[in-house]
Amino acid sequence: MGKRILIFGSFVTDLCCRTNRLPEAGETVKGHYFKHGPGGKGSNQAIAAHRAGADVTFVTKLGDDTFGREALAFYEAENMCTDMVFVSEEHPSGTALIIVDELTAQNQIAVFGGACECFTDDDVAKVVGELENSDILLVQLETNLEPVKVLLKHAKRGGLLTVLNPAPAQHLDTEHLQNVDIITPNETEAQILTGVTVTDIDSARAAADKLISMGVGKAVITLGENGAYANDGANERIYDIVKCAAPVDSTGAGDAFSGGLVAALAKGYCFFDAIAYASTVAGLSVTRHGTAPAMPFQDEIDRIYESIRK
Q: Scanning 54, 187, 234, 246, which has its CA 20 to 30 A from the CA of 88?
């Protein structure tokens, strides 16, 4: 049986509109499609790992409202445990406003965290207790920040493998980065953390070196259409994107990658093979609309992964 994963993070309801181009500042463009559904970095990553066959416990906080009830119904339909899903009587569920360019599949997103930005000390104490039943911790930065720092510290001390997807981009002190075994920033996030402008493989290498010098164990820098760069402190590897079909929506690709990464690590894949697996999950996700609903399932991931490994 694989290792147990605890994913702490956000749930937001995605309100998605598709247009024939993204608007400029101050501009209104007409949309051709609208849909709302489950999203949020933490939730998307938990769904990705769960569908990939991992043993996942997801921790988030919802409002006592329509979006919150829809979230619980979605998790139940996915056969995910909701024992660590907190409900706030004071704060609404989070929402994300998403515009997707129909021609390029690129997107613009504004997020309101709502309840998942309001974890209390009592909430966090319960999550710390749940770490004792886990082997891997995955966190992001879409909740209030203090619980993330506390959980990384406790998980590191408890011997868990700690994985940080530092999104949305913001600064973190070296004190907290030293509790991170694996970090997975994109170009913008890597620049904010290190001061290195990432535009190509050489600059990605420089940013990864800087992150490792700051105390992180291993670094994976995702480069969008240019793939990913990985460094484990001794060796490096460069990855191309995995093309499964024509991309239609890149909104959840980063979350698919993070969820796929921890799923592969939980199954016993080595660091570099886990990144190839995560790239496969991301490559499949962009061929479908939406975020959580676009996450692929284990059988299709394994089929594509095995084909690219040959």
A: 54
